[in-house]
């Protein structure tokens, strides 16, 4: 694992873009601020939350429909067994609950949490990230080629972490 610290965010993005062209090289960027326009920076999390909301809403509606039509039908004032307008509040609440739970668990899965230790945390450059530093981490077997690419972008430091 190679860790390189940069002065500016644009230099970090240029180096990361070039490293992403290297086959078999996994690239991660770290910075104190959210990246502005990183190519390919889309998240699957909204789709996971949409799916969780749909499952929660359909599950809540189905549960109420099953309970009032099949499991325990009641004749209350001539109301039909499948009186769907009365299901709307609970269906909405269960849809929101499903979306929130899917969002929480989806976030943990996509961010690989809880991750209590990562070898990149041992790098000296990672100590400056929260103070405004910009770091690129490249995991590859071609260490010399990646080191040459990083050196072209004028980093503050390049260090080899882990094995």
TrEMBL record:
Superkingdom classification of source: Bacteria
Keyword terms of this UniProt record: Membrane, Transmembrane, Transmembrane helix
Record carries keyword Transmembrane helix: yes
Membrane-spanning parts: 44-67, 87-109
InterPro entries noted in UniProt: ActD
A Pfam family reported for this protein in Swiss-Prot or TrEMBL: ActD
Record-linked PANTHER family: LIPOPROTEIN-RELATED, QUINOL:CYTOCHROME C OXIDOREDUCTASE MEMBRANE PROTEIN
Official protein name in the record: DUF3341 domain-containing protein
Organism the protein comes from: Novacetimonas cocois
């Amino acid at each position: 694992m190679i860790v390189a610290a940069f002065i500016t965010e644009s230099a970090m993005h240029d180096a990361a873009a070039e490293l992403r062209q290297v086959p078999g090289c996994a690239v991660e960027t770290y910075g104190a601020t959210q990246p502005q326009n990183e190519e390919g920076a889309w998240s699957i999390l909204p789709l996971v939350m949409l799916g969780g909301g749909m499952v929660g809403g359909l599950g809540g509606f189905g549960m109420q429909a099953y309970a009032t039509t099949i499991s325990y039908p009641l004749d209350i004032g001539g109301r039909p067994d499948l009186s769907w307008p009365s299901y709307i509040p609970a269906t909405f609440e269960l849809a929101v609950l499903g979306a929130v739970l899917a969002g929480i668990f989806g976030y943990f899965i996509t961010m690989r949490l809880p991750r209590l230790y990562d070898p990149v945390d041992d790098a000296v450059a990672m100590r400056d990230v929260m103070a405004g530093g910009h770091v690129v981490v490249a995991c590859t077997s071609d260490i010399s080629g990646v080191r040459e690419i990083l050196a072209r972008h004028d980093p503050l430091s390049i260090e080899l972490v882990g094995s």
